[in-house]
Amino acid sequence: MLKLDKHYVEPRLVDLYDIENPRGADTDFYVQLAAELDARHILDLGCGTGLFTRELAINGRQVVGIDPASAMLAVARRQPGAERVQWIEGDSKALGTPGADLLIMTSHVAQVFLDDAAWDATLRDIYNALCPGGRLAFESRNPDYQGWKQWTREDSFVRYPSPHGIMETWVEVVSEDDGRIRFEGHNVFTATGEKMIVNSELRFRSQTEITDSLHNAGFAIEQLYGDWNRAPFLSTSPEMIFIAQRD
Ligand SMILES: C[S@@+](CC[C@H](N)C(=O)[O-])C[C@H]1O[C@@H](n2cnc3c(N)ncnc32)[C@H](O)[C@@H]1O
Fold first, then answer.
1. pTM tops 0.85, yes or no
2. For residue 106, what is the enclosing H or E element?
3. In the chain, which end has fewer C-beta atoms inside a 10 angstrom radius, N or C?
């Protein structure tokens, strides 16, 4: 059975997601990409609370948001514009073969697939869900950039108002092991003093690992950007933003 990170399951933590992850340059990037490609049928895999999904659901496009976390989808479904999207609870197996022209995975969804078998199976399902020539767009953090070195209490501490009172949150890396980063998310509900610690793990695949997996799944890489301004990818880039096309 799929094991989900508690940040996507525990309702009080889910309520914090949109506050901690507001609209940004990545949203603009995907909105512009969909317009440039003139995408009419878009799938958002791992859509979460649906910030990107709802923005893409304009101009009569057919947009589907898929996520295995029912608590994240519950938030998505009650936002303005949610009625323009079809929401599906599930993982890539629920995609089927709709012949979409664009599939996106935003906010580092690609890094939740820890095992190569799960990642490869997801890419196969995505391939089958796209029409010939359809695009897959997603990002993964560049492991050479080592962004997790800033995942310390000192560098990540934030204090903010929330529906559950003033929150204090931060992250701390627990271990670095061959592309797998384990870390703790600390969440303090200051009104009561309750502290919730969440154990998380993300996979940092290399450019070569992702490129090979895409080729094996039947995709050609059209673009690889290193940031949201579309700078070409370099070993020093924070992100690897892939635009791939299925055959
Ligand atoms: C960091 S959130 C990103 C949410 C959304 N894409 C965004 O941009 O805000 C990661 C999402 O991936 C989802 N997820 C976890 N495992 C998944 C899987 N096997 N297949 C698809 N989505 C998954 C989680 O439930 C969560 O909503």
1. yes
2. none
3. N
